[in-house]
Amino acid sequence: MKWKFINKIISAITVSMTLFTLIPLRASAEWVNDYQGNFYYMQDNQKVTGWKRIDGQIYYFDGNGKMQTGWIKAGSSWYFLQNDGALKTGWINYNKKWYYADSSGVIQTGIVNISGKVYIFDDNGAIKTNNTVINGEFYTIGFDGEVVGTKMPTPEKEYDDSGNCIQVLKNTDNKVITSPTDSKFNEVIEDKTESDDNPNEGRSFKVLLKDSDGSELKTKTVKYGKSFDLYKPTKDGRVFAGWNAKSNGSGKSYDADDSIKVEEDIILYAQWKEDTSVYVEDINIKGNSNVTVNKSVTMTAEVSPSNVTNADVTWSVSDETGKATIDSNGVLTGVSAGTVMVKATAKDGSDVSGTKEVTVTNTDVVVPVSKVTVSGQAGESTITTDGGTLQMKASVSPEDATNQAVTWEVQNNTGSASIDSSTGLLKAISNGTVTVKATSNNNVVGSMTVTISGQSTKILVTDMEITTTKTDFAITEDGGTLQLNLNITPTTATNKSVKWSIKSGEDKATINSSTGLLKAVTNTNGTPVTVQAEALDGSGVVATKDVTISGQKIKVSKITIDGPDSVTGTGKVTMDKTVLPKDATNGAVIWSVENNTGSATIDANTGELTPKSNGKVTVKATAADGSGISDTIEVTISGIDNNIPATKINIATKDGAALSITEDDGTLGLIASLLPSYSTTTSEAVNWEVISGSDGGSAKIEGGTVGSSINIRGVTNGTVTVKASVINADGTTAIGSATVRIAGQITNVTDIIISPDEAPEVVVGGTLQMSASVDPNNATYKIVNWSVSNGTGTATITSSGLLTGVSSGDVKVIATADNGKGISKYITVKVIPQVKVTKITVNAPDGSGDEITDGGTLQMTASFEPTGATSKSVTWSVTPGTGKATIDSNGLVTSVSNGTVTVNATATDGSKVVGSLPITISGKVGTITVAGTGNISTIVIPNGILQMLATVGPTDAVNKAITWSVTPVTGKATIDSNGILTAVSNGTVTVNAAATDGSGIVGQSVVTINAASGITINQSSNTVAVGNTAKLTSVISPTSVTGKKVIWSISNIDGTNTDLATINSTGDLTADLTALKQGSVNIKATLDDGSGISVTKTIIINPNS
């Protein structure tokens, strides 16, 4: 090895001001990065600088070869480099604003045509999204920034869909740049020393594993060429997603079980993703509650919620009085009689489990089915695919029924299907509904309805019968109807559509071809109408039915007006007419008149015409029987002095649109119509007036105010009343008015008021909230945009007006109205230097003695030096000593446990000054001892109770209140707020007494529940001979009860003392009965546990033969 080469490397590292190591990202790649997260591109052993196209992407490297990201300015143009360094082209969304870069990456400004749409960009390249004024012209801008409306500014450039400049449309200072890659490499000194050996041989490198936030997880030093095994870290609320060479996950990835060969220093970052797993919350074990010795039953675990990510469980069984085994699939096998506890524990890490007690018996226990519930797979009750299937499921009750098998069958209703009798797989045949039934071995039936659609199998119609809900097939009312219906065979026919028609008598009735509604036209007079229904399924089935029609009225078929066709003067004339047929049921007509050049009125019933003005009118006679028959005649009126005044003016829009203006500065054309229409007053003499509304609405008349029509222009939003009037020749006045709604009018800002406005100041590094109001108060756009113009000082400001001082001096804070009119105001703010804290003294309340003696709280305060410090805020914390406490952001200390703690106040002004004060805590609960009354720890009576007691220490604890709870172990119990424990089921439970003073102290005691529910005397024979002795054995249930004793007694049948036999106890549960004389006695066995449980058995004593 050439040591000269190694020395040069070591020397370079030693003198370098910035320590970093270049790491190749892949064996053949030219990209490298350092441990500060900077990326470089090596070419011919040199770092590239300037613009460079790599793998089709353009990047920019500064003079040191460092890859740049974000906004950069090259020459007079701005560019945007993405997080991976690649030059971005096209549309760019940055900080909630849109920019556009052409195909060379240059950010555009000004007016630009992009793919046929015109946009306006400000000097910073951000697209304008509000209406704007350019050179005195107002332009409307849509929500997406496109210029809309009739007015369109002249673009400066035009780009195609790919961002290529098609042409420059307007003289500008902007130059079209074709490529940013015309730059040179900076000169780099190349080290040409060589080595035949690997210079890293024998060296040690550091492997640093960090969290994605940069915090260190694990560090290890590894020799060159050795391997390092990765691992899988954990993090609350997150799921580990692997390791990555970059903190943001954009580098090379590694799995948790990867092994890395170490040839250089390595930094890897843990990558996380949100833990979206749904964990098990409850487990319900289902299966038979009994199992026979040497036989097996299968247990199943029902987990909830149903959408858990991992529903797998681990099975286990614990022996109680019996024994059993269980495999990983939940198959339980009985070993010896008694009870066992089956347990299923979730595998998803939730630690949730469920238990079920199972009895192991020597003989089979038969549990009959009492109920069957039928459901479809995943709750489905429909089949929608052609020939589709649905897996049916049957749930039997009780869940431990011995034989849970069912037999499946299907009953076809309007649809049809088949079902596998053993598996319950239902297969669709035709559309409609079917009923699925499941029958248990003891004939208990469950059922559900399934709806079938989408089937292509056709069941043809074989027969049809026409029916009606009325008593007979007849229509007796004028214009009456008859609803015809069909009975179709079979009822499961696929297509039940029919076409209704009239086979004969088409002139006497009509029928709806789809619904079968028959409507009468004329009487049938002995020849009925024949109605036909034809099936549309291709079966060719047809049904017919005759219908009689009577009671129909004869309609008018023709009206002729006989005159007169001219009238002179104002005298009334009666119009004549001829109605056919002459025997029409209703020959009356309704008269009306339409005024043309003349005018008249007419009596609708008598036809009496009254002339009003000279000219022509049209008289019309219409049949009153609803047949629609009519006739007209033109009548000429003459000999009348014409002077008819207008009585009313009707106002409407010129184009028939709504009476509203909805565009800013919009107009509305109105027209006046004089009534009556034959009035001789001219509408050209109408006077117009606009009255502002009480809601602030206003408008103005464009042009003259006299004439038959006007145009009004909207001014402010609200409503206005438009009034029109005209003076008739006889001196009377006709008036009309209309309400017009004004909307969409923009009220511009005329002034801006900034506050605070009296010598405002902000500290370097501090903030000052600026606010602004606009005038007038009803301005449409009240939003202002904040900016800062730095003077002798510097500051920054957010979009919400929060000013942050940067360096001392004066700055101008500017508020600009966001209405496109350029209205703005500014105020000078003085940025003053920051005076940092040099000392903090932590103070407890006077008289507290720096102690918390009641187990409660203590409010801390902080004083500062110098008193003129700019920022007097602190961050509170507490350091535990022999005691514990918490502290909130306001300095309120809350005691947790007795002892000492140290309260700290840290300055927030960056000075890192800390003040501290020791605090002594007393009065908290330290210990809790739990026991039953008299130190009893067993309940021997079913549902028995035990008073639990809790002793709280130390004696000076202020709050000795506790909360009782009970945790089941193998048994169950309840406990009330007074500590009274009530037994529920045998086994052990843990009684908990928790302190309520926040100390977290909990006392516990284990209580055993050993209660018998019954007793029997196990004696095979009820007789014994005189002089013989019978062995008696008592059996206590449940069999899990232990440690019980029995008291034996004997009496005559009537309960009196007996001399017929004697009984002697021979054990806790056994006794000997000695027969002395012939007769009958009662033997009684009583539990000696105070429960009073006993059993009596009658024994017959026979003579000794």
From TrEMBL:
Assigned keywords, A-Z: Repeat, Signal
Cell wall-binding repeat ranges, renumbered to this chain: 48-67, 88-107
Superkingdom field: Bacteria
Compartment list: Cell envelope
Record-linked Gene3D superfamilies: 2.60.40.1080, Cholin Binding, Listeria-Bacteroides repeat domain
Signal peptide: 1-29
TM region(s), chain numbering: none
Keyword Signal: yes
UniProt xrefs under InterPro entries: Big_2, Cell_wall/Cho-bd_repeat, InlB-like_B-rpt, Invasin/intimin_cell_adhesion, Listeria/Bacterioides_rpt_sf
Main location per the UniProt record: other
Gene Ontology CC annotation, any one: cell envelope
NCBIfam families: List_Bact_rpt
UniProt-recorded name of the protein: BIG2 domain-containing protein
Organism in which the protein naturally occurs: Clostridium beijerinckii (Clostridium MP)
